Target: FUSC family protein
Amino acid sequence: MREKLKQLELFLKSSNFDRGIRLGVGIVVPFGVLYFLGYFEYAPAVVVGTFLNAPGDIPGSIKRKVNAILISIGLTMVITAIILFSKPFLLLLLIALIVISFIVSLISVYGFRASLVSFSGLLAMVLAFAIQKETPQEILIQVALMGVGGLWYLVVSFVFQKLAPKKDQNQLLSDTLLLIGEYLKLRAKLLTKKTKRDKLLKQIFVLQHQINEKHETLRETLFTERKRSGRSRYEEKQLLIFLSSINIFELIEATHLDYKMIDEIFGHRKEFLKASKTLNKLMGNHLIRLSELLIQNDKIPNNDTLIKALSRANESITNYINTVKLPKAREGALLLKNLYDYQEQLLLEIRAIRRAMENVKEASKISLRRQDSSQFLTLQEYRLNVFIQNLSLDSKLFRHSLRFTIAIIFAYLLGFFFDIQNTYWILLTIVVIMRPSYGLTKVRSKDRIIGTFIGAAVAVGIVLITQNVVVYSILAIGSLVLAFSLIQQNYKSAAALITISIVFVYSFINPNAFEVIQYRVIDTIIGSTIAVVANYVLFPSWEADNLTQVLLNALKMNRKYLLATRELYQDTSKHKLSYNVARKDAFLAIGNLNAAFQRLTQDPKSKQKEFQLIYEIVTLNQTMISAIASIGNFIINHKTTPASKEFHVLIEKISNTLQMSFDSVDPSHIKTKDAEQIAENAQEKLLSKYQQLSNLRDESIRQGNIELDTETLHGLQEAFLIANHMNWLQSLSKNLKKTTERYRISLVDGQ
Model:
């Protein structure tokens, strides 16, 4: 019960519920004010304008949010006017539907925020069918009042922003820490769950993409806000938490170890890994708790448990050495020591977040130049050229726009010829659930139908209990607020609440609520069926056929990240910024590849061409980026020796192999030549360096020098990690080259 109350508190304090309240205020105030002023007949138009322009109000820079809502206002006004003027003329109306459906849906090429503006425009097109205005004067008044409603919502949003200026950022930071905490706990399971690693990796792919999305939005919000208004203590606190979350994410990536080697070294002695696994779980749970406290503002719990767990992880290294004995225990001990170092750094970053949350003043110590921060922003291209480039069947969004347009026209004609009451409910269902991906459309369709049935059942129950108009009004507004709050997190619940809201709104128009419920359910099923069938039959866009560009970008960014790590090894202070930018680009690219693979799993089994091969490619890319991150993180956090000539030779070899993988998928590039013999010699020399240091240490032990000094330990750690990780990266790159060549052959055979 206590946990449920805590979750309820987090929801009520969340920015999602806050946006629901904004919509509720935007709807209720015009109704109330215009009622008391005696102009109640104008209220529905103002409320429609408010409702239509709320979707663009998402976290991000204030400038982009305002621009999105203003564009949305103009777009919805124009579309509503076109549909209302065209309604008396069937041919003209069909042309208008075709043009609006296609062009407005294609606006999504400009990114997520643009897709919400597009959604508002398509929603306006559908709702225009519910508006009964016939004369030009009535239509213009309706459109003007909708514009007023949109501007009114912008004012409401601005006021809420001023009252709680950092709520969106806090929510984003909270969501990010929650996801990273879950991610860290999943990584812990990989250490010992040998038989479940494939399943765990698929879960990790999803979390990675979600974390990258949160980080991207936070970069836009925090860095652009910093440029606009300068620095404040609270903003510095948020920036410090954000940067620590990025460091934690990289550290977790860096601890994606060579599990095959771990299995070989530890075999049946997995108990020595349990302390590290437990520490990961505890740190993950602590991050989740900190994510909750960002919203709750309660007292931060002490970290004694984490410190004790870290101490036990350190003791497990000694226990392993005492059990297995040196020199046989050296490789396992070094692996445990490297893992311990990462976890120690993770704990330092968690403590940095704790300090920022406890004392805002300490956050002012952070320093990040504006010109540096701008390099981390992923700028969205808004030129007309982007739209024109997508006017091709090769574009996934172009095919979606064609498919969507045909589905809308078919649904409208179906309603027209069969005289279906409220045909626009079918159109509304198509607008809401139809997505470029078949899998997502199918999932949303299922959730929409189930949610509609649940909402209808609840509405029936309420109608049987009471026929009170006041109760209906309160439930209509309350359910709409909750639906808008939940629509991103739980679409099924949102669909149920939307159904409840619509049923009670229509109960004012049609006293027979059961008839309203019946039509609502039937129209939802019809619209969902049309959407799913259209996605399957019309210009289908299967993820297996759209993977090439995402894969090419992942290979390109992995190679860029690898080369940036080489530069970092040469001069850490000089190349730290370029390394961080390359890291961000690589993480985003692998996140997009993981998301594409996740969409592939939602497609019909018959359309998942070369599924196992694609999974292998995704896993290899994922493992490679983790291995690179491991080297980069070690270089940043340890005093290292100068990078050897052999290291450079191997980096060049791996880079060339990655380029060959790129060429395999994109044959237009010139084939890259290999340098196998030179690389093999370089690998042998790196391994021999570690062996020399090991022999020296063995000799020292034989002479009675049991204590290991820090310099020798770091030297052994560096030699062991670099030698093994370079060997690992070579193996990964070779396997990646083989799998991409097989992938290219499968593409050629499939044509």
User: Anything to note?
Assistant: The first helix runs from residue 2 to 12. Confidence is low (pLDDT under 50) at residues 370-374. The chain has four domains: 1-164, 167-376, 407-537, 545-750. The two ends are 58 Å apart (CA to CA).
